[in-house]
Amino acid sequence: MAAKKKSDARPVIWVIAFLVVALCVYFVLLSRTAIGLIGTGTVVSIGLGIGVLLLPLLGVWMVVSTLRSGIEHQRMVAAAQELGRDLDVDDLPRRPSGRIEKDAALARFEEVKLEWEADPSDWVNTYRIARAYDYAGDRSRAREMMRRAGEQYRSASEKSAN
To answer: 0.70 exceeded by the pTM?
Structure first.
């Protein structure tokens, strides 16, 4: 089997960096508007200002948590590949759109589910079932299992660091 060609991640990183900078500018402008509203001194404008000030705070939290999650997922992918246990779906039939055929994705899911049931405490098994859920179209369970895989991965990383 031929080795997979590694794609260049720089364009994606540049787009993410641009979006983060654009969001930061937006958050600063929104914060200035909020401070201006609070500075007027009326009860209604102070209430609106506080409400508007919460938006950038919420936005910063969302950006930071999304970036942390994405970085952690990339680390899990690299670690799983290094262990030779990444979920390979290259052999599955695809639709003209490039999506994996539903029946094939469900069949691969059943295989991965058996592995996970044999050892659900292994972060790689949990990572693999999260990916299998995603390919099978169950995004909510995929997110839930990927969150769990992240917790297991961090725990395993802490144990190996000590």
So the answer is: yes
